Amino acid sequence: MGKKEVKNTIEVEIENVEVEVVEKTEEELRIEQLIKELDPADFLLGNGHYRLVKNYREGFDYRALLERYHEILNKYDYIVGDWGYDQLRLKGFFKDDFRNAAIDSKISHLEDYLYEYCNFGCAYFVIEQFGEFHRKGRDTSNSRPRKKTKPKPKNQVEETKKEHQKPRRKSNFKKKEQPRKDNKKEKKEVKKVQTKAKGFVIREREQ
């Protein structure tokens, strides 16, 4: 490589380093500005607005939260941050009214999470997202809009009625013929005649 080529490569590397330094300083300035304007009741994180719900043992650190935050956490209603070995860990939770969410990902199971996965007595904080934002896979409203059904035309309604009307099948079973009352009376009269006939004795005339 010649001297000119070496100079060109060095200049390119210096320009890249300067760009990286400028970007880092801009990010740091943005974070510092957010920290100065911090209001625990309403602060920015990603694209959403949050408020501090619980701050156990002064675990809330806005600077560390901004550095550790990822966009995937935007879909949760709550974010829990716990400290272990000077490292901040973030975990998202949904509200209990979200039916499709797993049971262990609902905020009512926060105590179980702290007991099973966090160091005993560790510092932690809980922040809640509020305002208008779109949760992934669901709406913010509790009620679902009903689908409007268009009235069917009369011809279509008549056709559907004909389809539902099935032809009646003739039954193969024969009805039992009930004995008539007159036959019963005739049988009784025959029996009476027979009993009377048994009682008669024919005698010859004496000469």
Describe the structure.
This protein has about 210 residues and is of the alpha+beta class. Among the domains are: about 5-35; about 45-130, Hepatocyte Growth Factor (3-Layer(bba) Sandwich), CATH 3.50.4. It contains 5 helices and 5 strands, in the order H-E-E-H-E-E-H-E-H-H. Strands 1-2-5-3-4 form a 5-stranded antiparallel beta sheet, with helices on one face. The longest helix has about 35 residues, at about 5-35.
Please give the number of β-strands: 5
Determine the N-to-C terminus distance.
177 Å
Strand order of the largest sheet: 1-2-5-3-4
Low-confidence parts, pLDDT < 50 over ≥5 residues?
none
Going by CATH, the architecture of the domain at 43-130 would be 3-Layer(bba) Sandwich
Rounded mean pLDDT is: 76
List the secondary-structure elements in sequence, H or E: HEEHEEHEHH
**Count the helices. How many?**
5
For the record, what is the CATH homologous superfamily label of the domain at 43-130? Uncharacterised protein DUF1027
Strand content range: 15-25%
